Structure formats: structure tokens, C-alpha cells
């Protein structure tokens, strides 16, 4: 198993960048669908999602934080 530090070094990235990008794997599928459909608030972009507090553990909290309704 490769560590985040090793992966970052081997790919010319910082550990910080890797950990911010990995958080996206835990994004609520409903939010992903809305992003792909172009139906999210303008301020919900990649930079916003990489913020350390942008992806709470619970999907309901993610939807509330980013103003995403199910079935929009």
C-alpha cells in the first residue's frame, strides 16, 4: 500500500493537494449529479469543494451546506 506522502512525491504534487482532492471521493452522489447537470449554485466549484470544511461526513449536511435539494 502506498502512502499519501509517497503518492504525492511520486506524482510531483503536495500531500495537501492530494488530501484535498481525496475528499471529493466522499461527496454526496446527489451533489455530483447536480454538478454534472449544471444545477448547482455558482459558488459551488472545485476550489470551494477542496476547502477543508466543504465536505462534512454526512451527505445531508453536505446538501444543506451547499444548498442542494434532492430531485432538483
Report on the architecture of this protein:
The structure is a single chain. By secondary structure, the protein is mostly helical. Helices cover 49% and strands 0% of the residues. It has helices at residues 4-10, 15-22, 29-36, 46-50, 59-65. α1 crosses α2. The radius of gyration is 14 Å and the shape is elongated. The model has no long low-confidence stretch (mean pLDDT 91).
Keywords:
72 residues, mainly alpha, elongated
Give the C-alpha Rg. 14 Å
Proportion of beta-strand residues: under 5%
State the order of secondary-structure elements, H for helix, E for strand. Answer: HHHHH
Helix content: 40-55%
**Total strand segments:** 0
Distance between the termini: 40 Å
What does this entry show, briefly?
This protein has helices spanning 4-10, 15-22, 29-36, 46-50, 59-65. It is mainly alpha-helical.
Write the layout of secondary structure elements.
Layout lengths: L3 H7 L4 H8 L6 H8 L9 H5 L8 H7 L7
Amino acid at each position: 500500500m502506498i502512502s499519501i506522502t509517497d503518492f504525492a512525491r511520486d506524482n510531483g504534487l503536495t500531500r495537501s493537494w492530494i488530501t484535498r482532492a481525496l475528499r471529493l471521493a466522499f461527496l454526496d452522489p446527489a451533489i455530483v449529479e447536480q454538478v454534472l447537470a449544471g444545477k448547482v449554485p455558482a459558488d459551488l466549484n472545485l476550489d470551494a469543494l477542496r476547502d477543508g470544511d466543504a465536505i462534512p461526513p454526512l451527505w445531508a449536511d453536505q446538501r444543506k451546506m451547499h444548498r442542494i435539494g434532492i430531485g432538483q
